Amino acid sequence: MHGRRGLRGGVAAAALVLLLGACSEAGSTGEPEPGPAPSSTEPPTTPAVPVADPEHAVDPPGERDGRLWSADILVQWDQPLDDDLVEEIEKLRGVAHTERIGLGQVSLENRVLTVASVDPADYRHFTRAEVADFQEAWDRVAGGELAIDRAVARRLADDDGMIRLGNDDDAPVLHVGAYTPQIPTIDMVVNTAWAEDIEMATSNGLLISTDDITPATIRKPLERLVGEDVSVQMLDVASRIGLDPDARLTAIPTGGTLGSVVGTYRYRVVGGNRIAPDPAWVAANIRTEVVPILGSVTCHEDLFPQLRAALLEVQQRGLADEINPGEYAGCYYPRFIANTTTLSNHSFGLALDLNVPGNLRGTVGEMDRDVVAIFKTWGFAWGGDWRYTDPMHFELSEVKAVG
Asked: pTM for the full model?
């Protein structure tokens, strides 16, 4: 491994943690049950990692074979990669190695997180040394489990170490197999057998290593080759400041509701936690209309039928006074979640905040529970149900026909 990547950030192997839980054969201590002692003529053997989900398992990767590569550039398309184009990219001066991966975004408690579907045997070569050699983690990914950064998982995993990848009731639920640091801009990793269930591609992203050449030196020829609608991110920049400010970024939300409503979402970072979505996307999707109780609001056009239906029912049931229009904090607000580089569902105009002062994050909130039940009936998820509550927040989780 060359020096530019090194032990990036100085994180030691002790930071890598397996979440054994119900999907392992560990005893009550959390340690694997010991096997029989090896004989003097037999080499020690490592117990096989149990396959957590045989229906979503791929071939185990085996021990790492080959050198490590620096994860320098991430390119994302909104469709599977063209073989000829990949060949042209690999011919560019400065491109040392590439790896195809799938990329998609899932909405989890108002956080739009990036999931990568990968071949564990090959993708591991683009991770840090201590991650690449964390054998059991890659065996668990191959066996159908999820690898995720601990800080991200802390907000999302339930007590059994399970995470639902999406807001839909039928969204896939995966067990966290290992907490591991991730490549910049990627939040979690699954194997390619999960891609169909998550409704994401297996080959719409390309990791590029420039080895000892500064990645920025190939940015312009790479952008000319792939075209202006493709996201080209310098990961060395992202590792320092969170995102590449010069990149035209792409989100491809997955899952039935979010994927069908949002489509491909391109944007740029403009500072102050704000983003600038593609004007064509905004013109095609964002509207300002009048709804009951709240008056004029700006949201995604597909939100309005269900929002009107929910607010009309609140009104008809004599509960209008439970929503204060003066405490409404908006719907469409293209931004990152505060102090992060993670998109909010407000960026798509698919969420709204009500009665803000009495319903702050981390509290039970004062939102009338009959109002909450009405919104849920009309396909909205409520932030008060989350592990870290946000009771002011309602977001579209299911598209419903409104008669």
From this structure: 0.84
